[in-house]
């Protein structure tokens, strides 16, 4: 089947002017002309145009595309395989860019003012605004959420670094206690749980023992939170939850004057 220049332009979603330019520079000649002198393109011409447009999307200049398609030893199958490999690389690159933009959008939604390059340097594998959308849905109307958002808006790069360093150090201490067989309800584990509560108070919002227990429940009920703790040690979320509950009980006993 032959296509007129207008039909080919509509199929390929390019302009007639573009096809005429490709003809002038020898990149895509029509296979035939009608008796009236109009360009007629074959199915093979359509396939060549597809390959041209693919290379254009990949950023190749027209001169280089012409050289690639005009090489005597060009194997159409090998050429398509090369295009596919290049497209896969482009897709992977775009996916990374998309993830970076998504992370920036989440940060902006919390009022974080870091620049993109600073965020990439600070966040690393950890995402300090992870689950922010879900957290907002759960606690948007609470004073704790409002306070956390207010504080996050003022954090500098150094603040984020200090916050993450403190969190990682605390998690390592908890992981070490768990690995050494320290009971989660022991005084040592309770002190670590209290350090975790104070960490939340220092960086995010006032955290009562009751609220701390609610957070502990979330750490083990939501797989995403659980996995974030599991990076430091197996069953660390469960260990921390037990320690948090033990610490809350100890604090209540002290308030009642029952501490022994």
List the helices and strands and how they pair.
Layout: E1 3-4, H1 5-12, H2 16-24, E2 32-33, E3 39-41, H3 43-57, H4 62-70, H5 76-109, H6 116-123, H7 132-139, H8 143-153, H9 157-179, H10 187-203, H11 209-221, H12 223-230, H13 236-256
Helix pairs in contact: 1-2, 3-4, 9-10, 10-13, 11-12, 11-13
Strand content: under 5%
Low-confidence stretches: 115-136
Alpha-carbon Rg, integer? 31 Å
Q: What global shape is seen?
A: rod-shaped
Give the terminus-to-terminus CA distance: 94 Å
Largest sheet: 3 strands, antiparallel
Broad structural category: mainly alpha
Q: Work out the helix count.
A: 13
Strand segment count: 3
Biggest sheet strand order reads: 1-3-2
- Mean pLDDT, nearest integer? 78
Order of helices and strands: EHHEEHHHHHHHHHHH
**In percent, how helical is the residue content?**
over 70%
